[in-house]
Amino acid sequence: MNKLPRFLERYFWDVEFEKIDSDASSRDILARLLEYGDERAIGWMKRNFTMHQIEDVLFHYRSVSPQSANFWALIFNIDKKKVLCLQKPYLEIRRRHWPY
User: Fold this and answer.
1) Residue 62 within a domain
2) Is 1 contained in some domain?
3) I want to staple 73 with a disulfide (CB 3.0 to 4.6 A). Which of 13, 48, 52, 78 is the partner?
4) CA-CA distance, 86 to 73, in Å (whole number)?
């Protein structure tokens, strides 16, 4: 089991930080850091995960907000048409649940 560095603990307030396995939970870790990470956390993410893994989260995970996904698509030069949470059906569902 690969442990996360202690400075990332603040991003995982809802789980037992010591039990997080960076290999088994890589998609959840990436989604959390893409959504909430600061410069240090993003630097660690880029050193420890491949661009393919980051793209996989953006392409298949809906837990990243549209605002964050749009930002990372611009930063990483990713086609927004491939980002799941930026697709029209997802945005329509989101607007029905959160109409603001």
Assistant:
1) yes
2) no
3) 78
4) 10
